[in-house]
């Protein structure tokens, strides 16, 4: 049941990716972790290291809540490299006996990427915000360091706080990053800014009464006035699936913008109903994804390194019904040449993808694990070109039209998962068994 090529805890509970960086040639990924299978508790950072984004070595706990400024949890944050040192920025969570909360934006530093010395609080809560103030993202631009922090204003509205520093240790608050007239829900978590040549993208995990989703907004970061200027107020979901939240990006030594997200999320009962809980673990991170801009849109594609996993390729030119038996539920499926065609893909009765060339409707269904029903997403796709699917025993990540649309979800497959493909005209389908050496 446990994924084979996703970052997944040996035991316990995983959520947000943290502290992402490439340092001295090695990729470092931390994630929020609890040794018990429960979403609630004193979170700490679990550390993974890799040479190739494929083979991950568990390095144990990187940050644990041991000091007064973090005694009830080392909450999410980011990582940067400066002068041969690896800095982590995170939120220290403190609770009092009455349930009140204090929050501190803290730092830790390492010369080897493994042993971190805590610096302590470096940026403080101002009177403009409630104590729902967390998830610092730090980056370097125009000769200075910048920090954004997810925030809730005193009006109980979501926003993002902006800070600036010249030395990573002393930070000045510059105010709200976002236009207060826009609807940012009641909290903006895990803020991020992804830069491209012509336009930038603000990513926030926006919390609203009708749900919590990771959003991307096109615009431009204006460093002179310290504001992000939104082009499209509606934004777009960074991922259209049922189980994606708290993404974080970083730029590697090749200059690629890479992203990991939490392949989880949901209300308490939804999370704890999953079959993995009985095995003593819960949730994974997504595969590493490269972020790029095409036709002005923020897109995602699987990192090139994932091709190393491919074994036993099967290739079909399908018209009508075609049955494929990969003899595994750890597979990659790629269907192309789909323009002007209706298609359906049924993977073991657990994951169903249907597209109608007439209605332009793409329907994705995921079988529930606790009842004999399906959750589904319905999207309008004017011209379907390709569908690229990664399955890993209990996860599904679907990239549509070269990553313009992505859907991520939990999907618990049987060991022997057969694939039924239908198309009204000939299409090309390839499958690979995926295997970590």
Automatic annotation (TrEMBL):
It catalyses: Hydrolysis of terminal non-reducing beta-D-fructofuranoside residues in beta-D-fructofuranosides. Its EC number is 3.2.1.26. Residues 353-424 form the Glycosyl hydrolase family 32 C-terminal domain. It comes from the Bacteria. Gene3D superfamilies: Exo-inulinase, domain 1, Glycosyl hydrolase domain, family 43. Enables the bacterium to metabolize sucrose as a sole carbon source. This is Sucrose-6-phosphate hydrolase. It comes from Anaerostipes hominis (ex Liu et al. 2021).
